[in-house]
What we know:
By secondary structure, the chain is an alpha/beta fold.
Amino acid sequence: MEAKTELQAALTTEKVSALRKYQELVIGRPGLLALLKYELIMLLCNGVPGALGFALRRFLYPRLLGRVGRGVVFGRNLTLRHPHKIALGNHVIIDDNCVLDAKGEGEEGITLGDNVILSRNTILSCKGGSIAIGDNSNLGTNCLIHAESPVKIGRNVLMAAYCYLVGGGHHDFSRTDMPIIQQPSLTKGGITIEDNVWLGARVTVLDGVTIGRDTVVGANALVLESLPEFVVAFGSPAKVQRSR
């Protein structure tokens, strides 16, 4: 038997046209009008530099997205998938080359609160789960959040560069008679990062973890288990080192 994930099988089947695969993967809505609207807006403004590009994106992107607040700034070369499931609060800043991929089951998708900053090359990827980021939170460059289960980030959260949050996506590997890629993906309920948390550079947080409010996690930590409030933790795996 050929080893494929569910997504691979959907993308490689010959029963569905290439255009329909593209529309299901990227746009998330059927119909020629939805396709033309998406393609035209992305063509007109996505890669345009300078003040003209800024103005075009500010005017046109809200016509794709589910909800857009006041004063939102969109950088160049964004990837938007299932944009109708993306909701942005007031004064959100999304830097160049970010990916907001809200595809997956359900209508929750991606929700960003007021004053959220996504720095350059950051990826928010839903794959059946949802991503919610609270007011005033700041994600550094090259962060990645993967959500097969809900990922909830509170207010005033600071994530340094290259942080990796994995909500779900752990494959069962108990069977040896079939490839791991064909075995089911397991979940422990997602990830919760409470208010005022600081994650240092290259912190990895795995599924099922809650990090309590006002906690600091040092650089390069691997967080396998939940951490309480008001502590400093670091290491691989991360352990509480002291109280704040």
